Amino acid sequence: VLTAAIALSAALAFAQGPGTPPDPQTMAQMRVNSLTAQLGLTDAQKATALSIYTNSYTASQAIQSSLQTNRQSISAAVTSNNAAAIDQLSVTSGTLNGQLTAITAKAEAAFYAILTTDQQKIYATLPQGGRGGPGGPMGPPPGAGPYARFGRGGE
Length: 155
Hints:
Layout: H1 2-16, H2 24-39, H3 43-79, H4 83-114, H5 117-125
């Protein structure tokens, strides 16, 4: 029975393939669920946070797609030894990462603003400055402060 269960699990895992990332609403819900467990969000805070993170993830999608295309173009420029294209595409990559950082920072600022003082204190002590959880980018080390997490791009 155990062997059959393992085989079925493996078959299901391979059948799913690499898959696609969850939609913005699902990612936002996972983020809010995690934050609710850690901070004890009220129903009103959960609704506001869900809106904040759904909008943030939605706004990030087009930029993420552009970044993927940019990375492919950089790879092609590398293989063709096109230094001018590498320079230009690298600048574009920096701009796109900056846009992602701004979207993320604005969402975090909006979320932080809805927290009570006690929740803000807890949030500041969470691993990675509160930015852990499914799909969350790496943040600063614990104790770096609630605003230090915005120094990294949103790859």
